[in-house]
Queue: 3 jobs
Job 1
Amino acid sequence: MTDIKDLADGMKRVSVEGKVVEKGDPREVKSRYKDETYRIVDAIIADESGSIKLTLWNEQIEQVNVGDNIKIENGYVTSFKGEAQLNVGKFGKLTVS
């Protein structure tokens, strides 16, 4: 497991555990490639070392609530507007405990 403070843009195959401390409101985004719309929510997860923004897509939104402890396996980190973001992606796994 990686500490949240050690996550950096470009990291792949990261495994992280943290607690959901904040969850925003869903918004809709259009796919660049298909004529589809997706729902996304930005959440903040934290451990004893720090916190990071986690992007939740579609069915993940209902799985995760503030106060939940979650584990992300095979996730990756990107940067959006200079801020690191954790992503589960289609090959990652999100587990709520």
Job 2
Amino acid sequence: MTRENDASIALTSASSDSERRARPLTFFFGTREQPCPYLPDRLESKVVTDLSGSHAQQLHDELTLAGFRRSHNLVYRPACKGCSACVPVRIPVEQFEASRSQRRNLRINSDLHVEAVTAQATLEHYGLFDRYQQARHQGGGMSTMSFDDYRAMVEETPVETRLVEVRDTVGELLAVSLSDWLGDGLSGIYKYFTPDQGHRSFGTFLILWHIQEARRAGLPYVYLGYWIADCSKMSYKTRFQPLEELTDDGWALMAPET
């Protein structure tokens, strides 16, 4: 059975018959193959559908459970021939226990102010985003994004989306997470931060904030997107334990790395 079929089954089982009759059909489309951005010498393709209409939030929640991720008005899931390296992962927040280094991270950043605000692009946000891209991902596809491109990434959303701002004591913007609020948790779409305060480990701090916020709001999960075992850029995700992965039999605890 293909991943596309798995996703359709998950979507069907998550809704009642009356709910399915009350909303439009959802059509999925495959993308053309292109070079994989994570693993060398591999090709990437995706299955994609549009989020629109009055049922967008519900559809987004259901497809997130089936391993999809959002970008703008679309949700997608890898559907690569002969490869299943992309594994959807999430943190069960009630079971999560911060490690010693994660507790130290929270202490280091205890002087910062964090607030979730309306998903509206500003020049202040874009300036930080561009600095981050030039320092960390120069030459990458996102490093050439204009302000209009950035605004589309932030504001083209049919679901509950916010910008999580991290500021210092004088109000300087240091880090941002574009995040979705789901029925069962929080999902970080994209994070960026100032490149000159590495000791604060903002990537880790933002995930820890999402865990705390989900716990405060009574939401059971924080979705981290995809984890790839052979991609070193994604190794940080396994530092949050316990971690669940989406398997052919549903969500299950991932064995900790040794």
Job 3
Amino acid sequence: MNIKYRLILMNFLQFFVWGAWLLTIGAYWFQTKQWSGTEFGAIFSTMGIASLFMPAIAGIIADRWVNAEKLYGIFHIAGAVLLFILPTVDNPSTFFWLMLLNMVFYMPTIALAISISYSTLNARKMDIVRDYPPIRVWGTVGFIVALWVVSLAGFETSAAQFYVASLASLFLGLYAFTLPKCPPLGKGHKKTLVHALGLNAFSLFKNPQMALFFLSAMLLGASLQLTNAYGDTFLHDFANFPEFKDLIAVKYPAIIMSISQISETLFILAIPFFLKRFGIKKVILFAMIAWVLRFGLFAFGDPGPGLWMIILSCIIYGMAFDFYNISGSLFVEMNSPHSIRSSAQGLFMLMTNGLGAFFGSRISGIVIDKYFLLENGSFDWEGIWLAFSGYALVVAVLFAIFFKHKHDPKQFESFSH
């Protein structure tokens, strides 16, 4: 099989595993198990906790001792076992620890998948800038397909979503052992522990603008977890209203939410134009304003006459996610010393998927339980989404005032071709 197709299959399954449960676990948690929001916030914080240390540890192992594709396979097989066990758990605390262990194995596979792709393309002297994005976009397609499979099969509130993810993870784990060999490249190279863990990238905090940028990355990382955690559950709750319960958006909310990922694939193509025309600061501000609108439209939308607002919110998500994550990654690339660029990208991931995800998940669960539960125990969704929207607006205003960056269109010429 053509190596591009082999890498496409790897990326497709990589995000299929995640998409099978990430947006629908809330419906399972609240409607089937009827556990609390505080405990649910803890579940989503597992991604942040795992991202704090596991990508660095996996990177050291793959650099020094174990082929990247073998480590990748081992992690996915371990994840498959844990996902298979999850439906048998009836205690939220036990569920938390199993999910944390699952994330310990899953989160580093995102970076390992990138490493395997780069290594394989480099070994064949292929153009990474040209050839990798069309391969990676199939990861988003895999996420979308997983959402549709789980939704159409009626698994959104069922434990079966974890079995779907487990089967895909097991297949991917076994498939990984057939991928081209990616041997350790760091054998014999002595590194201090600081360098090995990527901690040298923290020197970037000495630059006030970089420090402000990474702080905003953490705050927006929280926004991403809010939409992942509660979007699907929000639509499921409309089933409690007779006028909405039989509508398509309520029966198959994951399909509606998948518009967000479809939008991602389209906004990626617009980034070069926007960066060259407006510059990093404005593009990131566009992303922040998009988050304000994302949450605000959810506050006033519904599956009936207000469905257009929910769909528009999902379309806007593509800008909110891509314009910050991809543009932010490019900003880090351009403003970090060559010797620590990989570590700097790791730091960017730590701030968004690590600290941002952890604090966003934990704090939102506590706040919702305390301030946004109605007397009958249901969620005050309008209040929840308006609070999230206000939070994103405050972040945007502070970023606009304090972040200083002069736009130079020439910086992006090579990126836009």
